Every structure is written in C-alpha cells, then in structure tokens.
C-alpha cells in the first residue's frame, strides 16, 4: 500500500488483472481506472451500469436484471458560436466555441417493456434494436471557462433493466468532465442544467407508452441533483486538487426551502451542495466584475426559461442581439429598467409562466475549480485573472463617467492586382463529414474504443431534427423509427454499417432495500421510533370480546329530556 499524505492508493489483484484503488476518505473509494486517460466512453458506461445478478435469489428477493444493449454516440467538433454571456459595455464579446454531443442507449426488441406481447415478424428480423435512452449535451469553450450544459435527457420506457438511466447519465457527464480536465487542466469547468418536467423531450409519442415513468417537477429536480452528486467526488489529476461544489436554486424558494432538494451525501475536502447560484463566481473567472449589468452575468442556453426572460428585458430597453460596444452612448450602461441585480432577477423569475401556477423549475450547477495550482499554460496565455478583472472594473467605471474613445482609423487597403486563383468551395469552420471520403472516415469513427462518431455541425443538427419527427408510441413503431434514424445518420456520414458498440453493464447492484435499490451515494434512512405516539394493534381476543357486546348504545326514554317550550304571553 502506497501512502501519499491523506490519500492512499491500494493495488488489488482480480484474477490476472491488477486494479488500483484510491482512498479519498473512509466512506468513499473511487477506482482510479475510471479516470484513466485511455478509458473510452463504452468502458466508463459499462463500469457504472449494474450488470445481471442472481445473488438476490438467496435472500428471497426478485432477480436483478442487468443492462445489455448497444451504445451509439455522435458529436460535432468545436466551432465558433455566439457568446454564451453577453459582454459588458466596452468589452469585446468572448470568443466561444460550441461542440454538441448526443448519447443513446438501445436494446433488442425482445428485451423491451413490450416483450410480453406477441413479437411481430418485423421485430424478429430487426437487428438495430430500439432506442431507449437519449442525452444531449452542449459544451461551450472560452479562454477561462468550459461550460457543459445538459440540454435534453429522455427515456421511453423500453429499457427494463433496473437502475440504468441514472448511472448512465452520471457516467456520461463524468466522462466528458474528465476529458475536459485532461485537455485544459487549469481551466474552470461548470456543469449546468435546468430541470423542468415534461412528458417527452427526445422521443415523440413516448408519452403514450404505459411503461414510461414521468417524474413531476419536484421529483425531477431531486433526481438531477442525485445524478450530479457523484461529480463532487472527482479525484485529483496530478498535482491539481480541484475545489468542487454544487448549487441549486428555484425561483420563489428561500434557502431553508431549498434544503430538501440538496443531496445529503457527505463529501471529502469540504465539498458540498449549497442553496443559491455560482453566477458571481463565474463572472470573476471570466474577468467580469460582479457589479456589471445582470445581463452580462447570465448565460443564454437554448430553450432556457432564463434566456426567454432576458430577451424580453432586452427588448424593453432596446438592447437588441447586436454588439453593444458599437454605440455605448445609445445603449447607455446596458442595464435593464426593472431588474437591476441578480437577486431581483430571480425574484422576477418566480412570476414567469414556466415557474408559476404550481410549476417548479430548478437550476443546478456543479463548479469544478482547480484553484490550488497555477500552471505555466495560464501564465503564458496572456493577462492573469486578477489583471483582467481590474481592467474590466476600470473600463466599466470609465464608461459610467466618460464616453468611449473613437477607435483609430485604419489605412486604406491597396487594391489587389494579378491573376485570380480559384479555390475549392468548402463549408465555413473547417471540413465537414458530409463531404468526407472513405479515408477521412477512418479518423472520424473509432467504434472499437466506443468514442463515437464525429459529424459536422450541419450533420448533427439534421440527425437530431430527424429524431424529433419519429414515433416511439409502441415497440414496433419505435423499432422502425430507430432503423430510420440510423439510416439517416449513416447517409450523412457515408457509412455502410452501424457504428454501435455492444454494451453490457458490469457494476455491482446496490444493496436491495424494501424491494428497491439504493444508489451508490444514497444513505440509509434513520428509523424513527414512533412507539410512544402510535397505538398498539389490538389483539384478536380483544376484538372478539368487543364484538360480543352491543354494537349500538341504546338510550332509554328516561335518559332523554325534552326541552320545555316557552309559554306564550
């Protein structure tokens, strides 16, 4: 056993294989192989999803079925996009790049929730399986911040294996986070999402499937908090010891009311869940003062209730979706009239249609800050965070008092002369897999490791739009829709076969309790002794004795006395 300060590493032998374990605390042990640089997405999911187990039969409990199906993962390369945060007055927009990721898990038609019904001839011959789980994630890259936004996640009830959806979502997000940490070890990472209950997100018609379990607003917020909770146990990478905290906020809820939505898992190194939001911390990371206009502190995600409200506030004061640095005198300070700070913004969100009339929308974040070590990459990348923040504050103060100086005029460009050389047409932002050759596809597809299929941005959007117009109302319709979607993706990339990776869960099932299963970080509930306030159950003899007596108490006529009538005068 190798000891390094408060962290211990333990090497155990499983057959012919050596596995290394890292002890974070007495209650939490994480396998170091999960954060191996060579770990593929398929390996990460297989290690997180429980496999089949018949150990419960010895205890008289039902058989725990494991997941066995296919993994399909498509993603696009980072490309320039609109800034996630609007810039403060006098600042240039942040250069932002966006990459899209879509994960799907499928099962054979005979292993779906409808396997008890008669299998049609089409389902017997269909080999692609049925899509059962889909997760879409957007990753925004800036100089100092990486934002992993969970856009959509949906199931359709066709995956019958227990405890599959939650560990699959956690493993996918952990895999993305670890990959970003390896690429940019000194950059802050934030995982963000908003939880809003809806009958279907990615699989049209799946709401009609009786086996689909739809959570309400409050259940969904707690579910996502449990999905993100294992991210607080991420180990160190090299010499960097990250500071990780989770945040939950619900418009209209105070800190005391939010406590019921926070996971109660104990984490090492002071990591915990907090009621509130990290927008001020993220602003300082970006070099923006917390005193900047609220619109510059709030991100704008697709289909986000916050983004729609921000757009309405911008329209009220004439702040269009253009570069506000072009005319600061016209746009003044870039502030709204009715909402002057973040606290007022969240108070106003309570009265929005998405957050009123009994509806609840939760906003969740997990912030990973490698704050204890500053690498050479950060020092060589330009100005430090402190200098950038000071420059921002001084520039904002100058805007309040004096107008922005006119930029220097550029010299006239000389006219071009000489012969015109024709260039081959290409898509903006680099090459596209829509026009890729078979040789290029070898670099895009790595089905052996399960790292997915790289497609162009246009191809990715077309694949997701196709999925949104299919039908998953029943097993056969879902199987046909799956085949149609796979054919569309293959035509986009010029593939002749399927890029799926066989996936079998290998994780051990959590211990059973009350016919169900505990999640890895879920603590046993304490038993409250109610003997002093709960009446004991009557014995059979006592019940029989009472049955011998009269069921109705008869009152004699002498026991009743009529009220005398008042005499008439």
Write the layout of secondary structure elements.
Blueprint (H helix, E strand, L loop, with lengths): L1 E3 L2 E8 L2 E7 L5 E3 L9 H8 L19 E9 L2 E3 L14 E12 L13 H5 L4 E12 L3 E11 L9 H19 L4 E8 L21 H12 L14 E7 L5 H4 L14 E3 L3 H7 L19 H13 L10 H4 L10 H8 L12 E8 L6 H5 L4 H17 L36 H7 L8 E3 L1 H11 L7 H19 L7 E4 L7 E2 L2 E2 L22 H9 L21
Parallel strand pairs: 5-14, 9-10, 11-12
Antiparallel strand pairs: 1-2, 2-3, 3-4, 5-7, 5-15, 6-7, 7-8, 8-9, 10-13, 11-13, 16-17
Helix pairs in contact: 1-3, 3-4, 13-14
Subcellular location: Nucleus
GO molecular function, one term: histone H3K56 acetyltransferase activity
GO biological process, one term: regulation of DNA-templated transcription
Which features characterize this protein?
single chain; 569 residues; alpha+beta; 2 domains; eleven-stranded mixed sheet; 15 helices; transferase; histone H3K56 acetyltransferase activity; transcription regulation; Rtt109; transcription
Outline of the structure:
This protein has 569 residues and is an alpha+beta fold. It has helices at 41-48, 121-125, 165-183, 217-228, 255-258, 279-285, 305-317, 328-331, 342-349, 376-380, 385-401, 438-444, 457-467, 475-493, 540-548, and strands at residues 2-4, 7-14, 17-23, 29-31, 68-76, 79-81, 96-107, 130-141, 145-155, 188-195, 243-249, 273-275, 362-369, 453-455, 501-504, 512-513, 516-517.
């Amino acid at each position: 056993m190798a000891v390094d300060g408060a962290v211990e590493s333990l090497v155990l032998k499983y057959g012919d294989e050596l596995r290394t374990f890292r002890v974070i605390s007495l209650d939490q042990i994480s396998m170091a192989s999960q954060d191996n640089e060579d770990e593929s997405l398929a390996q990460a999911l297989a290690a997180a999803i429980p496999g089949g187990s018949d150990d419960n039969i010895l205890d008289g409990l039902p058989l725990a079925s494991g997941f066995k199906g296919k993994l399909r993962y498509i993603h696009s390369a980072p490309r320039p996009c609109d800034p996630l945060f609007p810039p403060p007055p006098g600042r240039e927009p942040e250069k932002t790049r966006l990459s899209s990721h879509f994960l799907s898990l499928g099962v054979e038609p005979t292993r779906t929730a409808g396997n008890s019904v008669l299998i049609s001839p089409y389902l017997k011959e269909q080999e692609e399986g049925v899509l059962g789980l889909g997760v879409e994630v957007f990753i925004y890259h800036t100089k100092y911040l990486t934002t992993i936004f969970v856009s959509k996640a949906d199931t359709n009830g066709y995956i019958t294996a227990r405890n599959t959806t939650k560990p699959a979502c956690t493993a996918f997000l952990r895999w993305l986070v670890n990959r970003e940490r390896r690429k940019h070890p000194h950059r802050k990472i934030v995982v963000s999402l908003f939880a809003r209950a809806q009958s279907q997100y990615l699989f049209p018609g799946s709401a009609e499937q009786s086996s689909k379990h739809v959570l309400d607003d409050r259940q969904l917020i707690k579910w996502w908090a449990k999905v993100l909770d294992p991210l607080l146990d991420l180990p160190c990478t090299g010499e960097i010891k990250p500071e990780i905290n989770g945040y939950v906020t619900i418009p209209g809820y105070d800190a005391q009311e939010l406590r019921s939505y926070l996971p109660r898992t104990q984490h090492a190194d002071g990591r915990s869940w907090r009621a509130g939001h990290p927008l001020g911390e993220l602003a300082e990371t970006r070099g923006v003062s917390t005193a900047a206009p609220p619109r510059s502190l709030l991100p704008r995600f697709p289909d986000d209730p916050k983004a729609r409200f921000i757009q309405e506030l911008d329209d009220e004061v004439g702040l269009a979706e253009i570069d506000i640095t072009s005319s600061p005198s016209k746009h003044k300070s870039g502030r709204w009239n009715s909402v002057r700070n973040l606290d007022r913004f969240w108070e106003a969100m309570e009265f929005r249609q998405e957050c009123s009339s009994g509806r609840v929308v939760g906003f969740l974040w997990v912030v990973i800050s490698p704050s204890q070590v500053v690498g050479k990459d950060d020092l060589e990348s330009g100005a430090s965070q402190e200098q950038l923040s000071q420059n921002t504050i001084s520039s904002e103060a100058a805007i309040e008092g004096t107008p922005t100086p006119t930029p220097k005029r550029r010299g006239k460009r000389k006219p071009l002369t000489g012969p015109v050389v024709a260039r081959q047409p290409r898509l903006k932002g680099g090459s596209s897999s829509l026009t890729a050759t078979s040789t290029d596809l070898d670099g895009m597809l790595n089905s052996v490791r399960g790292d997915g299929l790289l497609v162009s941005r246009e191809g990715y959007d077309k694949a997701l739009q196709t999925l949104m117009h299919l039908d998953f109302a029943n097993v056969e319709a879902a199987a046909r829709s799956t085949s149609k979607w796979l054919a569309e993706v293959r035509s986009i990339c010029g593939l002749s076969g399927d890029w799926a990776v066989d996936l079998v869960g290998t994780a051990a099932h959590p211990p059973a309790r009350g016919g169900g299963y505990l999640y890895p970080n879920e603590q046993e509930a304490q038993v409250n002794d109610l003997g002093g306030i709960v009446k004991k159950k009557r014995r059979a003899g006592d019940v029989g004795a009472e049955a011998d007596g009269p069921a109705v108490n008869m009152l004699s006529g002498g026991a009743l006395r009529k009220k005398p009538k008042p005499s008439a005068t």
